[in-house]
Amino acid sequence: MIILIYNIRVKMTTDFENNSFLSKIKLTLKQNFTKRNSLRRLLFFCISAVIVIVCSWPMHTFAMNAKNSHYGNGFIQIDIALNPGIAFSILENKVAAIFCLQGLIILILSVFLVFSNKWYYSLFVGFAETGALFNFFDRMITKNPVSISGNKWCVLDYFHLSFGKTSFNFPDMFILFGVISASIIVTVFAIVNGIKDYKDKKVNKMVINKPSLDIVFEDDNYIIVNKPKKMLVHPTKYEDKDTVIDFLRPKINVQEFEDSLRPGIIQRLDRDTNGLMVVAKNKKTADNLIKQINENTFIKKYYALVHNDFKDDEIIIKAPIIRSSNNTTKMVVSDDPKAKDAITEVKVIEHYKTSAFIECKLLTGRTHQIRVHMNYIHHPIYNDPLYGQNDGYENYGQFLTSYYLEFISPTTNEVVKYTINLDETFNKLKEQLKLM
């Protein structure tokens, strides 16, 4: 229990040191109660509650209607008793103190469940909390089993270990199991995170040049950035440092967004794809830009170098995309009904002997869409080993750059356009392919 309380305190103080107390609470709830997490919490809490009730109710009913107060002589015996106290008869006949203590325990478990950032805690906390609630209401029911004097404020116990002096019930077992299990998990996570933080600090001391993010444009509602290669757009369960969001988080009204790990993200670029992307500073702007994407008034264009030349100067690729069942890091073109429609317009800017310099315009925004489509039509992007081949540029990634954005500014309600130039490595390979 002490560990659970400590975890709540750490969660409320360390993560949000620069925010007011109310902001901490609001932001924590936003982070922990996304729609997906809320459904998971509710499902696992209900599972634990059903297990406690299904196990406890029949045994309670049996004990209430038993003809005798004692059954069996084995290791675990049935010894029906009315306990006027709590565990080990503590606070015996102190009714007000017992109800206050039980109410406090239920409150602490509820607070932990609300402020814990792991949805699966709800399973173990559910065991403890449902068990505590079961005993809480059991005390309010008048009980008069055979050979046992009735007492309205007692809890009904029935299990008795041969070497022990006290009895207990199913709810007691679930309370103990839930608290111990949740405490162990919290402790393990604390140790693992502590080790990880220690390693990260050691690594950070050795890092001289930290990645930087080029801000192309910024106003009160959105930011245009030129994302470098090797930088993630937002934290993942594998990496959570030096992402685009890490750099921009102080500029974003994070509390307005349901997903605090990806606030303001309305488009994404792969780790090894560089170039322009827009990040919304507030929910209203994000909704505006998402609507433009859905209505195809948000224009995204990419430059790419691909293997094999084209016969035509312009083509349109319409091929649905779904995640590969053989490799979860890959997307594939498929006629599966679950595959999502994907459309890419391709314009050949320069024809080379065994390659081409192209412009791709996205009409949909599927994961890895350009890379998947270009591989599908046998024109894989240069240096893309996931969908093509490794062309020897180990620290560069695929030759794909988001060079152009056009949309209606949520601030001025006018069409705005943003472009960037290709980097030196891209231009150098382009010149080499011209001479081949």
In terms of topology, how is this protein built?
Elements: H1 2-13, H2 21-32, H3 35-65, E1 70-71, E2 76-83, H4 95-115, H5 121-138, E3 155-161, E4 167-168, H6 170-206, E5 214-218, E6 222-227, H7 244-248, E7 274-280, H8 283-294, E8 299-307, E9 314-318, E10 321-323, E11 331-333, E12 343-351, E13 355-362, H9 369-376, E14 400-408, E15 415-419, H10 424-435
Parallel strand pairs: 7-14
Antiparallel strand pairs: 1-2, 2-3, 3-4, 5-6, 6-7, 8-13, 8-14, 9-12, 10-11, 12-13, 14-15
Helix pairs in contact: 1-4, 3-5, 4-5, 5-6
Textual characterization of the structure:
By secondary structure, the protein is an alpha+beta fold. It has ten helices and 15 strands. The strands form three sheets. Strands 5, 6, 7, 8, 9, 12, 13, 14 and 15 form a nine-stranded mixed sheet that branches. Strands 1-2-3-4 form a four-stranded antiparallel sheet. A hairpin with a 7-residue loop joins strand 10 and strand 11 (331-333). The longest helix is centred in the middle third of the chain and has 37 residues, at 170-206. The termini are far apart. Residues 1-20 have low confidence and may be disordered.
Name some characteristics of this structure.
436 residues; alpha+beta; nine-stranded mixed sheet; four-stranded antiparallel sheet; 10 helices; 15 strands; 20% strand; elongated; disordered N terminus
